[in-house]
From TrEMBL, chain B:
InterPro entries: ComF/GntX_DNA_util-trans (IPR051910), DZR_2 (IPR044005), PRTase-like (IPR029057), PRTase_dom (IPR000836)
Protein name: ComF operon protein 3
Pfam family, one: DZR_2
Family per similarity comment: Belongs to the ComF/GntX family.
Double zinc ribbon domain mapped to chain residues: 3-60
Residues of the Phosphoribosyltransferase domain: 181-219
Amino acid sequence: MIKRLINWWDGRYERQFSTIFPPNFSNPHHETSPHALSLSGKLLLEHQLPDDYRTLLENKYLIKIPAITKKHFDYACNRCGNRVQRFFASWPCGCGASCVYCRKCVQMGRVAFCSSLYIWTGTGAFFPRISEACAWEGELSRYQGVASDRIMEAVDGRSRLLVWAVCGAGKTEMLFAGLEKAFADGKRVCLATPRADVVRELKPRFESAFPDVTIVARYGGSEEVDEGAQFLLATTHQLLYYARAFDVMIIDEVDAFPYHADPMLPYSTARALKTDSTLIYLTATPRLDLKIRSHLKLLPTVFVPQRFHGHPLPVPVFLASFDLKKRVVPKALKVWLDEKKRTGRRVLLFAPTIEKAEKLKGELPGSISAHSEDPDREDKIGRFRQKEVDFLITTTILERGVTFPSIDVAVLDASHDVFDEAALVQIAGRAGRSPEDPDGDVVFFHDGASDAMVNARDSIRKMNKLAEKGLK
Amino acid sequence: MHCLWCDQEIIKDLNWNNLFQLPRDEVLCEGCKKEMHLLKGPYCPKCSRETDGGEVCHDCTRWGEAPLEKNTSLYRYNTFLKEMIAKWKYRGDYILVDIFKEDFRKWFKALKISKGAVLVPIPLSEERFTERGFNQSESLARLLPLETANPLHRVHSEKQSKKSRFDRMTTENPFTITTSITQPVVLIDDIYTTGRTLQHAAKLLKEAGAPSVVSFTLIRS
């Protein structure tokens, strides 16, 4: 009963979209069109169409669906799935008395009541079958191998899979075999993630691993245009531009903000998939909803409790310092930092807010800060990675997806609300990522430990225990 | 009510000041309101730029005897407003104009402009208009109680915001005028940067017979 309910609930986005665009839309054409590669699988606005789109429409290569529909008194946006009425506003469009547009997805180009979305219904694009596309020649650990096989099975069997792998387990490498299989079958693949930083980090790694595959990276502010790439790396927001496009979809860091908080993103993900396709979730810290599905065996799951270099995860140490609120740099932190300076260790310090990070930067000589409102963020992160600076202060923006070899990690005011369990586990996972230096320090400075801190420490210990057990 | 910018719920506290008043519809939450800095003097009497002692600023002395007599602006330019204007103008989130409504009306009233004056919003070129779907200056003018006229026409050129100061100051006049004008004119625009655009428009309007030309803009950058 519960399983059926959950399944019904999970299918809500699919049902919402299939009312306006049936999944088994019959294709009247058999010959391919030159536009198939660049248009198929996309959800297009009028200004994105080629100049001869009228003839394409007449010949039923494209179909037109309304962007916003009105049912009784409520509007619904068919592009982002929004049904919250306060996100609809009217504007003087010239098409009629009050033309309504959707404010929810206005960042990705405005769609209004009088505008239409276009979907390619001609024969889809054909992608080359590239056998042995993977140029990566590393070796997988035992756990990685198991996960890699399961991923390959999921790609082949067009099923869903949750890969629950600890921070630093080598998730990217586990994907290679499955991706190779997908490219060998000529499938179209997308790797989506809520964070643009992660896309930027992953792109060079995939490009060197798959030199023969056309790869495009799309995120807010990227210059690349997708003219029909076989492998798309994108932020989940970019999936708003797609419909029924991908055979294989991998969502990296599913639990990251804003994917779980914004229904627009799961909606567009569900729509970007073809009806018979593979969906793989990758994360180190699944949220409760995924855990429940995994526990009820609704979502096949593979565990990777060990890091790729085989060493256990660093367990965070709690240090109480009750002058947190009074001083900018509490005494305990100062002592710890001096110690690190003496031994020549490099430090990544997490602050709860941007303000706090800026204040700390002012007080601590030799440090730089990077946060979401910083225009030079990428440059600063690069300098820290290149070991030009030894001390980076940041906010939760760097909690996941980034790798700095051989650093120590500290969290100031770890009992602050922004640091939930998932964030703390991810932060702890920044330390000890290189095989040469597998154990870094992780310290939480607090003035009264929160449940999140204790739970984070417990879950890290649990994972370490699991890894130990598995080896025997 | 939710904040129009950050979508946080606005919860107003009840105190003796508002206990017996009808509730007012708030547009922005307290946090976002704090980010909008109204210009508060002393400022240059000609262009509203904030100066130390309220003297005429360097740029205005360089303009000398210019056709535009005076500019009044509301807000100081900052990254918050930059984002907001970008979403409003370039992304086309039309409803954001409501954020400026109250202040824009209040400041206009304080200017004490005669009832006979006419509002002239700075036009967009046709290409730009089809791209955006609306003219931001026109939507600002619509907030004000005076009549609006559109005597100006704009020839398509590159975006002002993509140019350097030198490029801006040496551009040719992008406007043409078709009718003659007998009333005093208030030009309406969103941002006053170098004043070049407004000066171009003012020059044409003066030549067409306008007795006086002032401007009222949202932001002084």
